[in-house]
Specification:
Elements lengths: L1 H15 L5 E2 H7 L6 H9 L3 E3 L2 E2 L5 E2 L4 E6 L2 E7 L9 H5 L2 E3 L1 H19 L8 H25 L1
Antiparallel strand pairs: 1-4, 2-3, 2-5, 5-6, 6-7
Helix pairs in contact: 2-3
């Protein structure tokens, strides 16, 4: 019976000691960058996570103070590790684990406004039959006009 108590005490001591390093896939999952450890692993294998400009491996150990670049869709974040965890908590607990650099925030905001502006050039709807005919006439007139200009310069 004493052996069971000793085993329990050892397991409690090992879980309460502060962690000095955590695998990157576990940390990305705990920091809520990815929903599952599998998607975190796939992102790492796909080259979406970099440390000092180089791709990382799944077994890479994360330590406090390390800087990572994480690409998710259109966004690329540069973050500094502020805490370690292997347990996935709520969003506020996850935000304590890292800090995004000010340059990264500014870059993301710049790209976000550029994407919004590029979407403004899109029409609100598909052209109907009448509008398509007008576009076709306009294009035909302009092509003929360009051909006449090119013939005059020859």
């Amino acid at each position: 019976m004493n052996q069971n108590v000793m085993k329990q005490d050892k397991s409690l001591n090992s879980s309460t000691k502060p962690e000095t390093a955590v695998r990157i896939d576990k940390w990305l999952w705990a920091a809520r960058f990815y929903r599952t450890r599998t998607t975190a692993k796939e992102a790492i294998d796909g080259g979406k996570v970099h440390h000092q400009g180089e791709r990382v491996k799944v077994s890479k150990e994360v330590r406090i103070g390390m800087e990572f670049t994480i690409r998710q869709g259109f966004e690329e974040k540069t973050i500094i590790v502020k805490g370690l965890s292997t347990i996935r908590g709520n969003a506020t607990a996850a935000q304590v684990l890292y800090e995004e650099t000010p340059a990264s925030i500014a870059r993301r905001e710049l790209f976000q406004t550029a994407r919004k502006l590029s979407n403004l050039a899109r029409p609100d709807h598909r052209p109907n039959k009448h509008e398509r005919q007008q576009l076709q006439r306009f294009q035909e007139r302009n092509n003929i006009h360009h051909e006449k200009i090119n013939d005059e310069h020859l």
